[in-house]
Amino acid sequence: MRIITGKYKGRHFEIPRSFKARPTTDFAKENIFNVLTQYIDFEEATALDLFSGTGSISLELMSRGCLQVVSVEMDRDHHRFICECIKKLGDKSCIPLRADVFKILKACHQQYDFIFADPPYALKEIPQIPDLVFEKGLLKEDGMFVLEHGKDHDFSQHPHFIEHRSYGSVNFSLFRAEATADA
C-alpha cells in the first residue's frame, strides 16, 4: 500500500497477507483524488473515513494535510494495523476508532468537510449509507461524501448525488452537501 501524494508521498506499508480487507487500488485512489481536488481543498480539512480497512484513505488524507482524520474500522487486526501505520508516520492528526460504522453514524454530532466510505461490497446496507450521512447532517456546507461500491449500485437518483466514477471494478459515487439547495 502506497501513499500517492502530500507530505508522506511514496511511503509504503506492507499489508499482512491474512487481511480480509481489499484496499482501494493505487490506480483508483490516485484517480479519485485527482477528481476530488476539483471539489475540495484537503489542506486544513476535517475528514471521516468509514470502513477504513487497511487505512489507505486515512493515510492519504493525513498526507494531503487534513487537520483531523477520524478513521473507523471494526476489525481488531485491521484497526491495529492502522494504529501501527499512524505511529510509524508520527502524525497526531488521525484518530483511529475501533467501532461499528453504523453506531458511529447514528451517534456522531461532528460535521466534516469530507467523508469517505468503503464498505465491503457484499454489505446489504450499502444503499442506506448516503441517507444516514445526510440525515445526520454530518457534512459541512459544500462538504463532499464519496462512497466506494461495486457495479451493482446506482446512486444517480439520490438528491445529493453529483457524479459517478469507475476505475476497473472500483466504483465511486460522489455526493455534495449543497445539492438540495439547487433542487
TrEMBL record:
GO process terms (BP): rRNA methylation
Domain of life the protein comes from: Bacteria
Pfam family, one: Cons_hypoth95
Presence of the UniProt keyword Methyltransferase in the record: yes
SUPFAM superfamilies referenced in this protein's UniProt entry, alphabetically: S-adenosyl-L-methionine-dependent methyltransferases (SSF53335)
Keywords: Methyltransferase, Transferase
Gene3D superfamilies for this protein: Vaccinia Virus protein VP39
Coiled coil regions, renumbered to chain: none
Keyword Endoplasmic reticulum: no
InterPro entries (alphabetical): DNA_methylase_N6_adenine_CS (IPR002052), RNA_MeTrfase_RsmD (IPR004398), SAM-dependent_MTases_sf (IPR029063)
Organismal lineage: Bacteria, Pseudomonadati, Bacteroidota, Bacteroidia, Bacteroidales
Protein's name in the database: 16S rRNA (Guanine(966)-N(2))-methyltransferase RsmD
GO molecular function: methyltransferase activity; nucleic acid binding
